[in-house]
Amino acid sequence: MEYFTLARVIHVIAVILWIGGVAMVTTVIIPAVKRMKSKEERIETFEMIEGKFAIQAKITTLLTGGSGFYMMYELNAWNRYLDYRFWWIHAMTLVWIIFTLILFILEPYVLHKLFKTQALKNPEKTFRIMHRLHWILLVLSLITTAAAVAGSHGWFWLK
Ligand code: HEM
Fold it and tell me: For the chain, which residues make up each domain, given as ranges?
């Protein structure tokens, strides 16, 4: 059971670093970068910061998933996936899948190139779309985090 508690600690710390970083990028860094004068400067600064954060996000995503699935295994809670009252478990898994796909597949193989070409062509529109997408992911992650805390402490909301 100590290992279970350790997994919960790792899970929460990883979520703080990961979603906290997404919040920082969304509410502070993108708005600051958007105000820079030249588009080259905007692209270069954003890529430098987001590139560094991507490494942290990859590590924390792996830690969150690893500790999460370990807790599912220890609790033998797989049947929760079949119960709609555990929608917060589905939400956690969905958020994790979305970020895993973005960080490990879409960003390196598609989004990186796409962002650069579009940002050179039309920087305002590209940064606006990218900012909006960051907001969507952040809100989804915050709702999930709130629901996971409430749900794992016995508040299900749905009867
Ligand atoms: C593969 C993905 C994930 C799995 C399998 C998973 C699994 C779990 C499990 C089994 C618990 C403990 C539930 C209980 O005590 O009844 C938990 C707690 C929690 N998870 Fe996840 N999780 C995942 C991803 C995430 C993500 C992406 C977030 C945040 C966006 C998140 C945030 C939390 C929080 C905040 C708690 C509550 C901790 C507490 O209050 O003690 N998890 N997770």
Answer: 2-152
